[in-house]
Design a protein that fits this description.
Number of strands: 24
Number of helices: 6
CATH class of the largest domain: Mainly Beta
CATH architecture of the largest domain: Beta Barrel
Structural class: alpha+beta
Number of domains: 4
Helix content: 25-40%
Largest sheet: 7 strands, antiparallel
Order of helices and strands: HEHEEEEEEEEHHHEEEEEEEEEEEEEEEH
Distance between the termini: 33 Å
Oligomer: single chain
């Protein structure tokens, strides 16, 4: 193919333009000189929003603060921030005098119930032999039930104090008091935060660790209230810089005073391990197509040219290019979604559009003279 100086090609093109200003006749050699490249427009059922700043957070249902059930002194911390833990795993050991008191009360109730067991068995035998009245048997039975309820209450207090059911059974068998309290994780996950140090004196219910399950995670963005149109629960949410995709799970009702934004929350599962709670990201939200726009198309942004406030694309024709007006609906990262008289078999110019625009305008000016 021959190469033409751009000025010569422009002059030739201007002379070839017909009376119709929306047609640009070009030969194959001229197209090559312009450096024109073509692309097929893609039907756009949905569009993408601009990028919004967002933050990665942990769903509320997947995080817990592990606190000490009894006052005491931290004897040992067995895990640290960033470590993975299993449900039931011991995270820390405390020295707690109150635990000794609770164990002593439990063993006392256990001893009294065992004595009541013997007395009830004896009174049942004596009643069968007619030695004692039924009233005495009923009194023994009532006292036994009362002591059984007391033992159950004190067992539950031990479990509230942090002892597992296995620990309580071991205490029942050994009758050995211990001031050491094991604090266990109630869920599996990752230690996000350690809030105490070894040797620290703690009050009851004081926080030790924050543990969270990090799969899935939430993406939370504040979207300006005037940009909410087309955002729907269930639609995709993209993290373009990371190549990850989630789904919108909630759209808030409150407009936040500081930025006039509405909380849009998406959940991401696939690839969640590549994200970290507290991380700032950029998110693009999939928008439902406006039914009033007609057929919409996604084209490379370089295909759209503007003139006098209007937008156009150059569509390939047998003898050159047609200048088709379009309406810009959304500008995405590299693509633009437009509505216009395009079809699935069209090919539009994505390179050389500056030269094509110059040829078009030169031809239009020539036609006006």
């Amino acid at each position: 193919m021959s190469k033409f100086p751009i000025a010569v090609v422009l002059a030739l093109t201007a002379a070839q333009v017909t009376a119709e200003p929306q047609q640009i006749p070009l030969t194959a050699d001229q197209q090559q000189a312009f450096g024109i490249e073509l692309a097929v427009p893609m039907a756009a059922e949905r569009t993408l929003s601009r990028r919004f700043p967002a933050r990665i957070t942990v769903p509320n249902r997947q995080q817990q603060v592990i606190a000490t059930p009894q006052a005491g002194v931290v004897e040992a911390l067995l895990v640290a921030e960033g470590e993975e833990v299993q449900a039931g795993q011991v995270l820390a050991r405390l020295r707690s005098p109150q635990l000794v008191e609770a164990q002593s009360a439990y063993l006392e109730a256990l001893a009294r119930l065992e004595l009541a067991d013997s007395e009830l068995a004896r009174d049942q035998m004596l009643h069968r032999e007619g030695v004692i009245a039924e009233r005495r048997l009923l009194e023994s039975r009532a006292r036994h039930q009362e002591l059984a309820a007391m033992l159950q209450q004190r067992r539950e207090l031990l479990e509230l104090a942090g002892m597992s059911a296995e620990d309580v059974e071991a205490l029942r068998g050994s009758r050995h008091l211990s001031s050491t309290l094991a604090v266990r994780s109630r869920i599996g996950g990752v230690v996000l935060e350690q809030m105490v140090a070894t040797g620290q004196s703690l009050a009851a219910a004081e926080a030790l660790y924050r543990v969270a399950d990090l799969d899935p995670l939430w993406i939370e963005a504040h979207v300006p209230v005037d940009r909410l149109t087309g955002i729907e629960v269930g639609a995709p949410a993209l993290l373009p810089a990371l190549g990850l995709e989630g789904r919108i799970v909630g759209i808030g009702r409150l407009v936040h005073e500081e930025d006039q934004g509405v909380l849009v929350r998406a959940e991401i599962s696939d690839g969640a391990r590549r994200l970290r709670p507290g991380q700032f990201v950029e998110v693009q939200l999939s928008l439902a197509r406006d039914d009033d726009t007609g057929r919409t198309w996604r084209v490379p942004s370089t295909a759209v040219v503007r003139n006098a406030g209007d937008a156009f694309v150059f569509a390939e024709r047998a003898d050159g290019f047609a200048v088709l007006p379009v309406r810009v609906l959304t500008e995405e990262d590299r693509d633009t979604v437009v509505a216009g008289a395009l079809g699935p078999t069209d090919r539009v110019a994505v390179r050389g559009t500056v030269a094509l625009k110059a040829a078009w305008l030169a031809g239009s000016d020539g036609g006006d003279e």
